[in-house]
Recover the amino acids of this structure.
């Protein structure tokens, strides 16, 4: 069974202790810090990780807890992280096979996520009216309302609202697609007690807003799979639950990025472009430290996607952005090669930090679950699909 009842708080407190005790291992970022503070305490592990190549790091990126052969303290930390994040999945409910017209225009991977989300929902009382929050075209809502239940979809983008209404009308569903900024004051008027809100990967403040409004409206049940915890206006994380407010761990917005830092669904071309971009930025970082005689990271501007294939020298000039005088003659090949070498080191050193990625995400999800429990809901937490389908696979199901 998914995590529920008193086990929610027990697990949250154990995660809090684990994350707080090992902050020096996961807070420093290898990308911006060439020598990490923990390396002096664990030189064998640091040397072992730095000796590995980029391909090895890539192979272990999504599941760092499965890395074998690493010196202490890696194995013990990996085992503890795996134990703390072990969750039973939601049992899949029998669902009817829908006509293919329901998943028209839905990418295959996205439809699998939607189907798994829908199959994981089982409420004690029947649902009368679905509400798809940050709905896009409303694919999730239509999947849930296929049997004739009324559906309301809220979405800010007017083009997606129009297209969603067209798709729902074509299927003959009782659905209304409304243009709505869910962070706006009037969003509270769009849901009431007879709605069952659902949200699949609503980012940051968007899913927090849903939880608060659903509670205020008296909604008897809701289900959400959170995403992008760092997309919030607050510079420091504001715990939601009583347990969260009493926790030892304190987080800022940069810390929250760790929880979503893995990429298991990107294609080979995207990964190559990402690696090239990062290697060039790291090569530039080494160059700027050399030219300035200062061993500090220099923040650089974002570059348009069209720059990804440009030569390293051109990217370096753009990254300098007038704040750094570049000599007329430079051995660009040397610094580009150094950047690729540094990328391999960074990716492998990040494996240790990656051990705390899932524990941090579950800490955040349980803070949300415990908030809903504080508000009188009975809550379950567990994965609704495999992490290979989406790394953001944790589902919160709440029912009063």
């Amino acid at each position: 069974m998914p995590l529920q009842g008193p086990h929610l708080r027990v697990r949250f407190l154990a995660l809090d202790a684990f994350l707080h005790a090992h902050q020096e291992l996961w807070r420093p970022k290898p990308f911006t810090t060439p020598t990490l503070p923990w390396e002096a305490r664990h030189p064998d592990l640091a040397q072992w990780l730095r000796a590995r190549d980029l391909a090895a790091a890539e192979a272990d990126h999504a599941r760092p807890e499965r890395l074998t052969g690493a010196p202490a303290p890696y194995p013990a930390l990996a085992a503890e992280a795996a134990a703390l994040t072990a969750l039973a999945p939601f049992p899949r409910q029998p669902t009817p096979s829908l006509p293919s017209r329901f998943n028209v225009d839905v990418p295959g991977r996205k439809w699998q996520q939607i189907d798994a989300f829908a199959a994981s929902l089982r409420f004690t009382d029947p649902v009368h009216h679905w509400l798809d929050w940050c709905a896009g075209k409303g694919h999730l809502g239509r999947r849930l309302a296929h049997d004739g239940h009324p559906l309301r979809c809220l979405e800010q983008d007017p083009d997606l609202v129009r297209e969603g209404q067209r798709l729902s009308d074509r299927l003959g569903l009782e659905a209304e697609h409304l243009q709505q900024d869910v962070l706006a004051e009037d969003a509270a008027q769009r849901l009431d007690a007879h709605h069952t809100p659902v949200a699949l990967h609503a980012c940051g403040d968007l899913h927090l807003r849903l939880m608060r409004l659903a509670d205020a409206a008296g909604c008897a049940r809701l289900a959400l799979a959170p995403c992008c915890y760092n997309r919030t206006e607050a510079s420091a994380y504001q715990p939601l639950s009583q347990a969260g407010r009493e926790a030892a761990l304190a987080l800022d917005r940069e810390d929250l990025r760790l929880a979503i830092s893995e990429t298991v669904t990107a294609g080979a071309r995207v990964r190559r472009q990402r690696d090239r971009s990062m290697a060039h930025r790291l090569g530039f970082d080494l160059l700027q430290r050399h030219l300035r005689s200062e061993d500090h990271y220099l923040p650089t501007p974002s570059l348009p996607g069209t720059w990804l294939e440009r030569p390293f020298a051109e990217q370096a000039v753009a990254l300098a952005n007038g704040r750094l005088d570049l000599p007329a003659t430079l051995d660009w090949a040397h610094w580009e090669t150094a950047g690729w070498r540094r990328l391999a080191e960074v990716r492998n050193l990040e494996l240790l930090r990656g051990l705390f990625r899932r524990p941090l995400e579950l800490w955040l999800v349980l803070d949300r679950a415990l908030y809903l429990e504080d508000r009188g809901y009975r809550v379950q937490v567990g994965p609704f699909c495999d992490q290979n389908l989406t790394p953001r696979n944790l589902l919160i199901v709440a029912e009063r």
